Amino acid sequence: MRRAAGPVLRWAPLALALAWSALLLATGHGAEGWQRGYDLAVYRHGAADLLAGRDLYARVTERGHYFVYPPVAAVLFAPLLLVPAGAGLLVWDAVLVLVLVAAGHRLLRAAGVPAALVPAALAVVVVSDPFREALVLGQVSPLVVLALVGGAALGVCAPGAGGALAGAAAAVKVTPALVLVLGAARPWRRFAVRVLVAGAVLTAVGALAAPASWRSYFLDLLWRSGRVAPPGTTSNNSLAGAFAHAGVPAAAAPVAGVALGAVLVVAAVLVLRRGAGPRSSAGRGPSPGEGVRWGLAVSLLSCLVSPVTWSHHVLAAPLAAVVLLVPARGRVVRVAAAAALVPWLLPVLQWAAALGGAGGALLAQVRPLSAVVLLGLLVMDGPERHGWVTSDGRRLTIRGS
Predict the structure, then answer these.
(1) Distance in angstroms (rounded) separating the CA atoms of residues 106 and 234
(2) How would you class 334 by CB atoms within 10 Å of its CB: exposed for 0-12, middle for 13-18, buried for 19 or more?
């Protein structure tokens, strides 16, 4: 009995976190009435418009929002119409929880999180604001983040499966296509090619399913971020949002965000090449743990570079924080990761909106800054933390592994 009690107690934090999330959903606490299932309804409308042959981007919600995904997303959302609207959010959220627990467990273990700490780490992610918001809205973003990170984790050992996952994430959300920068390092090139192929095939499916909407999206709407929201919206977590909160004019903030984002991308690529290059010549490649690290880094980069990034897009932030908090790391890394995690556990953006003025604008900067800190910790947390694998799949242990 005592042996059985250990595993039960180990999973208790996750069970409590899920119960707390269910309570919040049932009571509506911490969310506005319009948010419940709002994005899921948009997905259903997009799928319905696709099947009816209508323009995917002509429908406007009662709050002035549009379907903002590429046409292939509407194809993938079509099965939602098989579920009654009243039960849709319940089914969708159940899928989100199951995928997070199953995929998150494997990713955290690959990243070096001890088995005994995985349930507690997952509990932190479940109660984080990005996942809470995704559950309330019925968002697809957690699936996109997990597909991107999972694809990168498989990137070298199984580039076909990894490329398919990451390519699907890129096809649905576009910004995860930034994962192609991993191809700058030789061990990742087969993976990058497969991401490109998978993304292109899925994008072509969207073109065949809705050619007029496809042309409209990729030739016009994709480049008009103002159609989604102004960069200065308090809940915008991107670099463009940070610049806008700091007083940069709305027209210039996205340009400044992309410019700084490009600097971060170049810096990450230089670190990637420096870490992977010498090892590739010896026939070794990154381990799944390295893939998790770089997948999280790319996900954070895509959120920072995007003109508009809502909280539910940034599930990589709490995931990265718990990965960086494992005991094997130094005190400085753990303290920095813990500090960067806090803004994703608290409703800081709601507080910023309520505060308003200069104080609210300053508070809204906390999350973009946190994402930059986590990105830096991930990029500089070198391969010696995870080890490398040889070309025949054997793990090479390096100091600190």
Answers:
(1) 34
(2) middle
